[in-house]
Every structure is written in C-alpha cells, then in structure tokens.
Amino acid sequence: RKEVEQDPGPFNVPEGATVAFNCTYSNSASQSFFWYRQDCRKEPKLLMSVYSSGNEDGRFTAQLNRASQYISLLIRDSKLSDSATYLCVVNLYSSASKIIFGSGTRLSIRP
Amino acid sequence: EAGVVQSPRYKIIEKKQPVAFWCNPISGHNTLYWYLQNLGQGPELLIRYENEEAVDDSQLPKDRFSAERLKGVDSTLKIQPAELGDSAVYLCASSLVSGLTEAFFGQGTRLTVV
To answer: Half-sphere exposure (CA, 13 Å, Cβ side) for B98?
Structure first.
C-alpha cells in the first residue's frame, strides 16, 4: 500500500460545479498536511495547508480526519482556471521529517 | 524576491553519459530537497538537506546518483552514468522549516536520455 493515495481522476466537471477529492495516508504519526496545485508542465505550488479543525480559503475547503486517516479538498463554484492536478502532501515528522506526495488528482473544468 | 532557480531547464543526453543539475534555493531557506517526477506521478523525494547536511538520502540511487550542497546554499545533483529510465523532471525545492512550512519549487529540469 502506498503511503499516500489519491484517486488519479481525471475529474471532468462543468464550470460552477462543486468537486471534492480525498486522499488517504497510511502512517498515523503523520503531522502536517498540505494540498499543492500543479499546472501542466509547471512546478507544484502550495494551495493550502490542512489544519485539524478544517480550514477554508475562498472557494476551497480542506478537512482532516485523523481517525480515518484522510484529508479532503472541496472546490465550490469551480472555474475554468481550476483545471490542474491537485497533489496531496503528508509530512511524517519524527526525528527527521519525511514529506510524501500523492500521485495527484487531475481536474478538468469544462465550459 | 527571487524564487528557487534551477538550470538547465532542459537536457538531452545519450545513455551512459553524465549529467548535472544545479539549484539555487530561496535565500535563508535552510532546507533543500531534490525530487524526481515522472509523467502522471507525484514528486518523489531523492534527497533532503538541512544546511549542508544530507539528512535523508534513503531514496537516492547511490550507485549512479550523487548530490552535494556546498556551504549550505546551492546544490548540484549528478547522474553518472545516465540510463534511459532516468528520463524525468528533476525538481528542486526549499523551505524555511523542513516539512512544517511551505516548500517552494523551482521550474525543474526536464531530462531526456536517448
């Protein structure tokens, strides 16, 4: 089993729709969680950190469920510009932190 | 403020040849990462530096890959000899505090081994 797993998609949704991605992680000791966005042939960029209490940034909402070991990303009122690959990132911080990326979920927004 | 700078952007080499990639992290960032990314996959960590010390190189294929970070700033990643399967994008990233703060990525070096 991979340490971080994501549904690869692609998700193809119409503009204005709400779409949600999940990501599961295998190590219960994982401490920090992030969502990164990667456009085609570009480098990954931080979209948002994921906090235990959940957090929202405009149309984006991130949730963490430690008991079930998954994080989620919800995008409301999706825009054409949201088309990208969304990478789930988990950091296991013990004596030496280890940052693990999921394989990414591809999202395509159609007009 | 300048971001993470990598060079070259693209490199095409024949198999069995050596190749080197260079990375200049964001000023003040002590943590530097080298990742490998294959098409359709997420980045995979090759090595992580805290200042000049390689603190996690467990995923680095040491028979052919080597890295250094002299003076805890710039870093180079070398492959010798390159194999066809090494074709990928090599990403460098840096962060203030390892794993707890945002990692900023360079644009990557796209390596093609023919």
So the answer is: 22
Rounded Cα distance, A68 and A38, in Å: 26
Alpha-carbon span B4 to B22, nearest angstrom: 11
Which amino acid is located at A38 in the chain?
A: Q
CB contact under 8 A, B100 and A42: no
The 10s digit of each residue's pLDDT in A35-63 is 999 999 999 999 999 988 889 999 999 99
How many CB atoms within 10 Å of residue B12? 11
How many angstroms separate the CA atoms of A1 and B55, rounded? 25
- In the chain, the amino acid numbered A102 is G
State pLDDT tens for residues B53-97.
998 898 999 999 999 998 889 999 999 999 999 999 999 999 887
Pairwise CB contact (< 8 Å): B33 & A91: no
Phi, psi of A56 (to 5 degrees): -130, 140
Longest pairwise C-alpha distance within chain B? 39
